[in-house]
Amino acid sequence: MIKNIIIWKTCRILANESRLRILKRLMRGAELCVTEIADAEEITPVVASQHLRMLHELGILKQTRKSKWTFYSMDAAPESMLIQEIHKPLERELVRKQGQIPELLKLMTAFTHPRRVEIIKQLAKSPRTFNELTSACAISPRAMIRHLSKLQSRNFIQLNADVYSLLPKGTALKKRLVAMCQQSQ
């Protein structure tokens, strides 16, 4: 079972335009060094290195040292269960479907806070009123309003007749992340 904290921390790392562009580049099968990535993305090697380190620590990239150079590529067998679960849908979005980075950012930022993960988990069980959600999630009404607003602006939930529910449509990645929230502790 995946923990709630792992979901939002993982999505927080992935919810960055530069890191998504780097992943997209590496998902094409390349093994690139830090300076190649920095040049391609028009960022400094220091910034590229920071992004790559975060993605490597997340478990989505493999790091190989050759002499004084460090090369990165996609990890074919990530250890993290979460990365195993989202790797293929993420790749489909970034590479195969020519996914738009802004849309992926919206998707990922829906999951970058533990309270939003809990709200999604509760709504995946069944539609709920504002008061039911506030009680089930143990979130103050003021904070709940903020989180619901963010989830609505990202097309995750809808309000109909004073009842909040998840929007059923979405990509395979969105559906996978919602399913993982349901299974989280």
Plain-language structure description:
The chain is an alpha+beta fold and 185 residues long. It folds into 2 domains: 4-96, Arc Repressor Mutant, subunit A (Orthogonal Bundle), CATH 1.10.10; 102-183, Orthogonal Bundle (Arc Repressor Mutant, subunit A). It has 10 helices and 6 strands, in the order ααβααββαααβααββα. The protein has helices spanning 4-14, 17-27, 34-41, 45-58, 81-96, 101-109, 114-125, 130-137, 141-153, 172-183; strands at residues 32-33, 61-66, 69-74, 128-129, 157-160, 163-166. A hairpin with a 2-residue loop joins strand 5 and strand 6. The longest helix is centred in the middle third of the chain and has 16 residues, at 81-96.
Q: How is this fold's topology laid out?
A:
Blueprint: H1 4-14, H2 17-27, E1 32-33, H3 34-41, H4 45-58, E2 61-66, E3 69-74, H5 81-96, H6 101-109, H7 114-125, E4 128-129, H8 130-137, H9 141-153, E5 157-160, E6 163-166, H10 172-183
Antiparallel strand pairs: 1-3, 2-3, 4-6, 5-6
Helix pairs in contact: 3-4, 5-10, 7-10
**Looking across the biggest beta sheet, what order are the strands in?**
1-3-2
Q: SSE order, as H and E?
A: HHEHHEEHHHEHHEEH
> Cα-atom Rg, whole angstroms?
18 Å
Q: Which fold name is given in CATH as the topology of the largest domain?
A: Arc Repressor Mutant, subunit A
Discrete helix count: 10
Roughly how much helix do the residues carry, as a percent range? 55-70%
CATH superfamily of the largest domain: Winged helix-like DNA-binding domain superfamily/Winged helix DNA-binding domain
The proportion of residues in beta strands is: 5-15%
How many β strands by DSSP?
Answer: 6
What's the architecture of the largest domain, going by CATH? Orthogonal Bundle
Number of domains: 2
